[in-house]
Design brief:
Elements: H1 2-9, E1 17-23, H2 29-41, E2 47-52, H3 63-74, H4 78-85, H5 89-95, H6 110-127, E3 131-136, H7 143-155, E4 161-168, H8 179-188, E5 191-194, H9 200-211, H10 217-227, H11 231-243, H12 253-264, H13 268-275, H14 277-289, H15 295-301, H16 306-318, E6 322-324, E7 330-332, H17 335-343, H18 347-363, H19 367-375, H20 385-400, H21 404-416, H22 421-434, H23 440-451, H24 460-476, H25 480-493, H26 498-513, H27 521-533, H28 540-556, H29 560-570, H30 590-600, H31 605-622, H32 627-643, H33 646-663, H34 668-683, H35 687-697, H36 713-723, H37 727-744, H38 754-762, H39 767-784, H40 787-798, H41 803-817, H42 823-839, H43 843-860, H44 863-875, H45 892-902, H46 907-914, H47 918-932, H48 939-943
Parallel strand pairs: 1-4, 1-5, 2-3, 3-4
Antiparallel strand pairs: 6-7
Helix pairs in contact: 5-6, 6-7, 7-8, 9-10, 9-11, 10-12, 11-12, 14-15, 14-16, 14-17, 15-16, 15-18, 18-19, 19-20, 20-21, 21-22, 22-23, 23-24, 24-25, 24-26, 25-26, 26-28, 27-28, 28-29, 28-30, 30-31, 30-32, 31-32, 32-33, 32-34, 33-34, 34-35, 34-36, 36-37, 36-38, 37-38, 38-39, 39-40, 40-41, 40-42, ...
Domain Orc1-like AAA ATPase: 11-164
Keywords: ATP-binding, Nucleotide-binding
Region (Disordered): 933-967
Length: 967
């Protein structure tokens, strides 16, 4: 405490520590924490937070954290509360019991709650520093609280916070699920103290201080031996010796062991003899309630009058069993006493009193969340409909505060009641859904049971939803073929619900689209096209099919205009329509992700970034911090990479990878993030680092067993081998990739640029074959029709040509890429063109293109490309110019060109109207497309200009239309 306060007074902020006390029960941990608490409260300005785990409350979610944080957060005024909570109020508030979840709120992801608590504490700690957080009996902390405390212990070092934990060292005292947290806490402690038993000298001093110096050595030795040096047992036994007026002499030593049995291992008879029936029943009620016991509530549970309860409390305090808390409630002097009393309850009495406790807690207005831990302890088998309804409602409330495990306990108990046959399948469905975010295997098992006719009827709408949820979990686990199969089979049996049938058919198409391999890809695409053509409305299901068709056409490399026609019909004024949102429970996040990917690969990157930016925000607000937010980070990283903002892309991709690793090993999300990260590192010129990342993760054939990697993994791996100079290996990998993609009818040269890179790999040894692949890549790109696809294919074709032919190809590539948002690809083409011009002797033109390439490469953070361009300039004695940072906003000349382009005015007429050279117009248009993140067809939307906007001389862009993407 002295160190914390001294360093904080000196201006220190990153001064946090974790102090732990561990040892056997009764060894003195609680006494030491009381001393820490007393010392801390004496420090001016220190904020002291205290909580205690409870053996009976270890299954009550956030029990410890609510004790710890409710007092301080509840004392904040409205303004400071909003500042501390930030955007996490709707996540942390309900979990900490500070507010009710909003009507229609969605289930919270436990990791999202933990992330929200991290944010709240990083805001709170500096405002209430120095902050001391004390937790006693950590081994009995609920898992929700324990998981966060173990995670926060790492962050605490960055804050002015002292954490003090006390716990039992023996693993048997911890819940089995808590093992990893126990190890983490022990490893993170900067000061660890494992308490030892008292020595013979210490116990002798205690005995003589209590019984007088006449206590004989032999008596003191036997006393020490009986209590085994345990302070709690020593004090309790001393009380018994004093009450029995036992002389501390050698001949009475044998009676110590008998007294210790009564004190330490108190039996039902022992407690009855000591307290009497009425007081013991009150003590039982207290033991059931755990910590911070309300006297009136305990009295009602044991059906005792107010006067009788007062007498019971007096006796229990006199016997040093209960004590009063600073808040006026009661607690056991030591948790060992509470455990001893609870364990003497006959089973029938215990289950009956738990039922009474559940009812009385609910009647007292404490809610189903508090009552549910007692409900799950009641004896099943009555078939009580009311109990089943309460447990189902409690499960829903647990999900709303991010406690799915508690929800599952309630639903398992509801199934044991048992529920009526006509709702049993619904309870199984709810049980399956409760584990969606945390336990995929349990979700699959429960949803399969819910769909089994032998378990009872399931309403048609719930059958559809249960099937979709089952397919969702199967797909996320990599079983995409199985996911598609269950949807298709259920769709064939869904005859009376057209909307539900369409939903399942669309889901089957979606899972097939993300499979690594498929037997009838072209036939499936034709069936999807027929389904799309049959649509007549614009309901959510119709729009979902349109989104899937847009992605299917993208992968097939069909004309981009057709893709965008379908994609634009999905949106409502540029945003996702109701029913297809990122956190919508009907379709899941895959549907809007699929739409965003279509825009990403069709040069409408600004639109994609708006969608992906919305995803990140919505997942954060909903408290979904696992795979959902990780996938949103990946999507934004992919969009940034396509735009050419490589440093930002790398940041988003690494965030996605960290989240993936936190969830589990080598999930589909991790494969996606690693693939694009490798591509990004290659673009930045860090090829060796890219190779290390790929090798460390195992990013090589056969990749993920069943799931398709975004973008095509085999093409990326071939590209990596080519960057490493391993042309033979690259040629083999790319040839294999091409064969698989061609079999599926996928010809998109941006999604899978295998043909162009294969041409480069073959150029030296098989020039004719290389030319064939290069020409195929250009033909496929022209069919697709986006500027970035055509420009990139032409650039790769130029790599296998020489002289004037290479120059002409690169000039065409620069023209196309200048009309696309693909900044990095444009920069590569500019540098390549400059180098080709130098080789044919056009030095002045070469210099201009190399300077443009350097400027754009610096903007993209493509350091390797900058070095290569400067080397080209140095080859003929020119010094590379020094460049400042490229401005993100459009200059006024660029706005003049952009307005005319939006109105459809061609580049030669723009040059005439503005009185500038055509090449300058093209350069300005290229900057506009790059900064706006869109090609010509999406430019108006990206800049916030209507297509028929009339420009006015000197007019400035409207607010919010500064040429930058919303993402």
């Amino acid at each position: 405490m002295e160190k914390l306060c001294r360093e904080f007074a000196a201006g220190g902020t990153e001064i946090g520590e974790l102090l732990t006390f561990s040892g056997r029960p009764g060894i003195g941990k609680t006494s030491l924490l009381h001393e820490v608490r007393r010392i801390a409260k004496l420090r001016d300005g220190a904020t002291v937070l205290f909580a205690r785990g409870g053996e009976r409350q270890s299954n009550e979610p956030y029990h410890v954290l609510r004790q710890l944080l409710q007092p301080v957060l509840g004392s904040l005024d409205a303004t400071e509360f909003r500042q501390v909570m930030g955007t996490w109020e709707e996540v942390v508030g309900p979990a900490m019991g500070l507010k009710q979840p909003k009507a229609g709120a969605r289930r919270l992801d436990p990791q999202g709650v933990r992330d929200g608590l991290d944010y709240v504490l990083t805001q709170l700690a500096p405002r209430r520093a120095p902050l001391v957080m004390i937790v006693d009996d950590l081994h009995w902390a609920d898992l929700e609280s324990l998981a966060w405390l173990a995670q926060f212990a790492v962050r605490a070092r960055e804050l002015p916070v002292l954490l003090v934990f006390a716990y039992r060292e023996d693993a048997a005292d911890w819940q089995p699920e808590a093992h990893e947290h126990r190890v983490a806490v022990s490893d993170l402690a900067t000061r660890r103290h494992e308490l030892s038993r008292l020595t013979l000298v210490s116990v002798t001093d205690m005995v003589r201080a209590e019984l007088g110096d006449k206590a004989e050595d032999s008596f003191c030795y036997e006393f020490w031996n009986v209590v085994n040096g345990n302070p709690f047992e020593a004090v309790a036994l001393l009380d018994q010796v004093r009450d029995q007026e036992l002389d501390p002499v050698e001949e009475n030593s044998q009676q110590l062991r008998e007294l210790a049995v009564d004190v330490i291992g108190m039996t039902l008879k022992g407690w009855l003899d000591r307290l009497g029936a009425a007081t013991l029943r009150f003590a039982w009620a207290c033991a059931m309630l755990g910590t911070d016991i309300r006297q009136d509530l305990a009295a009602r549970i044991c059906t005792q009058s107010t006067e009788g309860a007062r007498d019971s409390v007096k006796q229990l305090r006199r016997q040093r069993i209960l004590t009063q808390t600073p808040g006026g409630n009661l607690e056991f002097v030591h948790p060992l006493i509470g455990s001893s009393i609870y364990n003497t309850m006959p089973e029938s009495t215990r289950t009956g009193m738990h039922g009474v406790a559940a009812a009385e807690i609910e009647n007292a207005g404490l809610g189903l969340l508090a009552a549910s831990r007692h409900l799950v302890e009641t004896f099943p088998g009555e078939g009580d409909d009311r109990t089943v309804r309460k447990l189902r409602r409690a499960a829903q409330e647990h999900q709303l505060i991010g406690a799915p495990e508690a929800a599952q306990r309630c639903l398992h108990r509801a199934l044991a009641e048992p529920p009526d046959d006509d709702i049993r399948a619904e309870v199984l469905y709810e049980l399956g859904c409760s584990a969606l975010l945390t336990d995929p295997a349990a979700t699959v098992n429960q949803l399969k049971l819910a769909l089994d006719p032998e378990e009872g009827p399931l309403r048609p709408s719930l059958r559809v939803d249960a099937t979709f949820r089952l397919s969702e979990v199967l797909a996320h686990s990599g079983q995409l073929g199985e996911a598609a199969r269950v949807c298709q089979e259920e769709a064939e049996n869904t005859l009376d619900d057209p909307a539900g049938r369409l939903r399942l058919e669309a889901a089957a198409f979606m899972w097939h689209a993300y499979r690594k391999s498929e037997e009838d890809g072209p036939a499936r695409s034709a069936r999807l096209g027929a389904l799309c053509a049959s649509l007549t409305g614009r309901e959510a299901a119709d729009r979902a099919v349109l989104a899937l068709r847009a992605w299917d056409l993208t992968l097939r490399g069909e004309p981009s205009a057709e893709v965008l026609r379908h994609a634009d019909q999905v949106l409502d004024q540029g945003r996702l329509p109701k029913g297809l949102g990122w956190t919508d429970s009907t379709w899941g996040f895959e549907l809007p992700a699929t739409l965003g990917l279509s825009y990403t690969y069709n040069d409408r990157i600004a639109q994609a970034e708006r969608l992906f930016g919305d995803a990140i925000v919505q997942f954060e607000i909903a408290g979904w911090s696992g795979a959902h937010r990780g996938f949103a980070y990946f999507l934004m990283g992919l969009a940034r990479f396509r735009r050419g903002l490589l440093a930002e892309a790398e940041d988003f991709l690494r965030r996605a990878l960290r989240l993936s690793e936190r969830i589990g090993p080598k999930l589909p999300l991790a494969w996606d993030a690693v693939g694009v990260l490798v591509d990004t590192l290659i673009a930045r010129g860090r090829v060796n680092e890219a190779w290390e990342v790929a090798s460390g993760f195992g990013f090589n054939p056969p990749y993920h067993d069943t799931a398709m990697v975004l973008p095509d993994a085999a093409s990326l791996y071939g590209k990596l081998l080519l960057a490493k100079g391993r042309k033979a290996g690259a040629a083999a990998a790319l040839t294999d990739a091409g064969a698989q993609l061609e079999a599926r009818g996928w010809h998109n040269t941006v999604w899978a640029p295998w043909a162009g890179h294969l041409a480069v790999a073959l150029a030296k040894d098989e020039p004719e074959r290389a030319r064939w692949y290069a020409q195929k890549s250009v033909a496929d790109a022209r069919r697709f029709g986006t500027a970035s696809a055509i420009g990139t294919a032409l650039r790769l074709q130029a790599e296998i040509e020489d002289g004037q032919q290479a120059v002409e190809l690169l000039e065409a590539a620069v023209r196309h890429l200048g009309q696309s948002p693909a900044g990095y690809e444009h920069a590569v083409a500019l540098v390549d063109l400059g180098a080709a011009l130098r080789r044919v002797g056009r030095l002045e033109d070469a210099q201009e293109y190399l300077y443009q390439g350097i400027e754009l490469a610096q903007h993209c953070a493509a350091d390797g490309l900058v070095v290569r361009a400067r080397r080209e300039l140095a080859n003929y004695g020119l010094r590379p110019n020094r460049l400042g940072d490229t401005r993100e906003t459009l200059s006024q000349p660029e706005w003049d060109v952009a307005r005319l382009a939006v109105r459809g005015v061609p580049a030669p007429r723009i040059a005439d109207q503005l009185g500038v050279h055509l090449s300058l117009v093209n350069r300005r248009l290229a900057a506009v497309y790059r900064k706006a993140g869109s090609g010509p067809d999406g430019l108006a939307s990206a800049l916030g200009l209507p297509p028929e906007q009339r420009d006015t001389a000197g007019e400035q862009p409207a607010d919010g239309a500064d040429g930058r993407a919303d993402g």
